[in-house]
């Protein structure tokens, strides 16, 4: 509560807005995951599931300070002019994203890109949501074992959990990845595009390099199969935000650009802060208020 009061006071004082406007020609790539439709409850790893009303408030706040641009139009290394820019992205292709999230974006005429783990479309839910505790979190021991010992691989993690006597939770539709036909219908004739999140959403930094390269290639091959190629962008998002210099070099042979989950602004006053295949994003957790988002975009949080 204290934090939110402070955030509100800073916003009303105009400090974040002035700081953002002072960063003319800055570029941020926002990283969201799922949007929980009105009337539904968040489940799974709660940090990833923002409610629809709060997401709409984020968009309104963002429009006050940034021009919202399609991810595919960004050209790293160039120095744009005018207001700061923002590209909105989602990881994982949750059904909530392409229903409630797309509804809020379309209402405001805003574009966005969804990074798709194509090999998991239509599955019963991601391991991190199905193994989260009832309090909405994932224990560090479960996460560490899944990421480091099992490579973040969906089927290996769930099989190991069952072998250990854990029962993966059933999830409502909005907290599962969309199936392929539903996803493609949602982006047809829209301002929404699809990028690659590899094939099986494995930890590319935790599997052999040849497996990592296969995952990246299969994800991009799926993009090339889309009937409406205008809906595909030649971008990759590293699952879990994890990569290595070797993975990033391999990504250069697959995708035009690749992004992490965190790291802040991608471009500040004409200077792109990283190479094309390790571009940062501004991570937006579900609990972040619109005032908190302003502070984060201003580099104050």
Automatic annotation (TrEMBL):
EC number annotated for this UniProt entry: 3.-.-.-
A single GO molecular function term of this UniProt record: hydrolase activity
Highest taxon in the source lineage: Bacteria
Class of this enzyme: hydrolase
Keyword Signal: yes
Pfam families, per database record: Polysacc_deac_1
Protein's recorded name: Polysaccharide deacetylase family protein
Organism: Gaopeijia maritima
């Amino acid at each position: 509560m204290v934090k939110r009061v402070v955030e509100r006071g800073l916003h009303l004082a105009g400090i974040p807005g002035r700081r953002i406007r002072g960063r003319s020609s800055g570029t941020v790539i926002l990283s969201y995951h799922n949007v929980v439709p009105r009337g539904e409850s968040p489940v799974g790893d709660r940090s990833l599931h923002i409610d629809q009303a709060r997401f709409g408030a984020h968009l309104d706040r963002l429009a006050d300070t940034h021009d919202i641009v399609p991810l595919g139009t960004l050209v790293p290394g160039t120095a744009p002019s005018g207001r700061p820019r923002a590209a909105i992205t989602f990881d994982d292709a949750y059904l909530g994203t392409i229903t409630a999230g797309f509804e809020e974006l379309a209402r405001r005429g805003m574009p966005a890109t969804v990074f798709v783990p194509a090999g998991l479309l239509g599955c019963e839910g991601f391991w991190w949501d199905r193994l989260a505790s009832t309090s909405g979190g994932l224990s560090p021991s479960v996460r560490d074992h899944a990421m480091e010992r099992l490579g973040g691989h969906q089927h290996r993690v769930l099989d190991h959990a069952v072998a250990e006597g854990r029962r993966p939770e059933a999830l409502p539709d909005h907290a599962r990845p969309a199936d392929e036909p539903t996803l493609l219908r949602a982006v047809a004739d829209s301002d929404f595009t699809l990028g690659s999140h590899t094939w099986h959403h494995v930890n590319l930094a935790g599997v052999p390099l040849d497996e990592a390269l296969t995952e990246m290639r299969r994800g991009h091959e799926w993009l090339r199969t889309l009937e409406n190629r205008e809906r595909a962008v030649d971008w990759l998002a590293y699952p879990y935000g994890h990569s290595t210099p070797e993975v990033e070099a391999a990504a250069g042979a697959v995708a035009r650009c690749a992004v992490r989950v965190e790291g802040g602004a991608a471009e500040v006053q004409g200077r792109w802060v990283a190479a094309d295949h390790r571009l940062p994003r501004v991570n937006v957790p579900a609990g972040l208020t619109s005032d908190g988002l302003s502070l984060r975009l201003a580099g104050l949080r």
